[in-house]
Amino acid sequence: MNAGKLKDGRRRSPFSIAVMTVLAVLWTVPTLGLLVTSFRSRDDAASSGWWTAVINPFGTGWTSENYVNVLEGADMSSGLLNSLVVAIPATIIPIMFASFAAYAFTFMTFPLKDLLFITIVIVLVIPIQVAFAPMLDLLGPNGLGISGQFIAVWLLHTGFGMPLAIYTLRNYMSTLPLSVVESAKVDGCTHYQTFWRLVAPMALPAMAAFATLQFLWVWNDLLIAKLFLTQGNTTIIVQLQQLLGTQGQGAEFLTAGAFLSIIVPMAVFLFLQRYFVRGLTSGAVKG
Amino acid sequence: MSTTAPPEVDEPTVDSSEPSPQDPAAGTQPVKIAIGVVGMVLTMWLMANSFLAFAYYPQWFGNRIFIGLLALVVGVGGAAVLFFFLNQFVEGLPRRLSEGLIPYAFLLPGFSLVVLVLIYPTIQTIHYSFANANSTEYVGLENYRTIFGDDQFWLAITNNVLWIMVVPAITVAFGVVVAVLADKLSATGEKAAKGFIFLPMAISFVGASAIWGLVYAFNPAGQAQTGLLNAVFTALGGEPQAWLNISTGRLNSLLLMVILIWLQVGFAMILLSSAIKGVPEDTVEAARIDGASEVQIFWRVTVPQIKTTIITVFITVLILVMKVFDIVYVLTNGRFRTEVIANLFFKEIFANGQAGQAAAIVVILLVAIIPILIYQVKSFREQDLAR
Fold first, then answer.
1. Model confidence pLDDT, tens digit, residues B328-360
2. Sign of CA dihedral B323, B325, B326, B327
3. What is the pTM of this model?
4. CA distance A78 to chain B (A)
5. B204 within 8 A of A261, measured Cβ to Cβ
6. Which residues of chain B does A105 touch, with a Cβ-Cβ cutoff of 8 Å?
7. Model pLDDT for residues A68-124, shown as the tens digit of each residue
8. Distant-in-sequence, close-in-space partners of A132: CB < 8 Å, separation ≥ 6
9. By the CB < 8 Å criterion, does B192 face chain A?
10. DSSP assignment letter at A62
11. Closest A-chain CA to B174
12. CA B143, B149, B155, B158: dihedral to nearest 10 degrees?
């Protein structure tokens, strides 16, 4: 009687268990293959499939040499560092600008409010490809001359992230109790004070949610980093793309490099998962 | 514009009718205005100069970690200080004027950035699409004529249509299946299963391409197969195949789509799962009492109630698919008939130096996105009014 039921009294569903197990395995195997291959010597990886190393762990040459080589030889240690230098400011700076805008959209009335917010909804879906040629002109040597430096990428990511940041934060703020803001006003608080003392602290979960999304997006971005950073400043994702382009030579770099590029966002993702899920569900579903 | 004022708008007006110690017309504080203006100018000057210094003289700052930290301080701190002075300035103005201006002051910095990197470039791109290869002279509709006469363009369009038909639908289908089945597991089982499926969401398109490049790897017959797909295929008695070179039935494009689906199902699952958990238990229970099967309950009770979420997920993935670039660029670069619009754009602008034609391709992408855009705005308005 008890065997067929879950703790909460629902019936155990063998079909669900079977299908979900298969799917979980299917979804994990490709990444597992990369991880295993990255620890195999070049000759072993070229002469047998990674699964043979899993089946017979003592029959293959395990090595961490690929990681040493890729960090030093392919200079991915500097790519990793560059990625962090690009991603952290580009994640945090937009939140500041977006919070004030979201506050205005949530707690203030003004002419053109609807039109301006609809502008945000519209730019949310504009493909970033529109920006490349004009921004390369503007930031490049004939314009400001900052293309290639971190500032160019910070600026672009801050701008590209802005619509989503305003949208997510505004949606979250509109769920906050209006009475709190009203009573602050009665107490003589200005909007600026209300923002800092009440709304910003209460909106922290939404900020964390946006930050997770934005960090993943900036870290994983290929195009902007590739076009707007010099080789010395470039991110690990661009380095990985360059490794993928060179067939044969450096094949052993590739798996270790790919895994290195995945670790940081995955750690951030696992660590901030709760906020991420909340951000997605509050940002997208509520619209 | 002011036709659809949401209900919440009454709130500040209530406040202004509150007894105020100050006469609304008076209350001008020239000192505050002066401090505000000087402060804003100074802050912007300092921010601009320090950021330019990071770009022009990186050697001044030692290493890039230090630059990154400084940028964080200047960016976040500068923004806070800027808003402070902006607020001082607006508060110093006569009360009525100040009430009216504060919202715009709060919006200004964020909107300036949006205008700079999204709205201005959109207009400029449309403009460039009527100009020549290095955007120095107008050529009328020449660029459009050229790309419409280009086989690669039509190949890219058909491939994009294929991506659009396959990826969003399958992603949503998988997402629904996973969400429904995971809901029937024990709490621990659900958490674990979901964890495995949404982990790929953290992986970049490039990283995913590396992972799947390994799965699709090909070694000539006679050698050991190191690619999982070929290993399975040869074990079943097939000849090893260079999968990504096979354009018959667009097989290679479909294999590239698998990568995107693999990445996106986790996202679909998260949203759909939370929607399914929001379906009231009594509606399901009532159907069960009426003798409905689980399948009937799913189609007649659950699906109608999560329709909005299904559409949201579908559209999000759809927008992503229309701009799909990284996977194709990295794995095939459009060879073997796998070309897509975003990759063609990249080739035209950077490999071929055809800025005009590249701009025209983006304009076509923009036009293709317009229906989605209209839908988004419409549904936003509906939801906002319902709020």
1. 999 999 899 999 999 999 999 988 889 999 999
2. positive
3. 0.89
4. 10
5. yes
6. 107
7. 888 887 788 899 999 999 999 999 999 989 999 999 999 988 999 999 999 999 998
8. A223, A227, B121, B349
9. yes
10. B
11. A23
12. 90
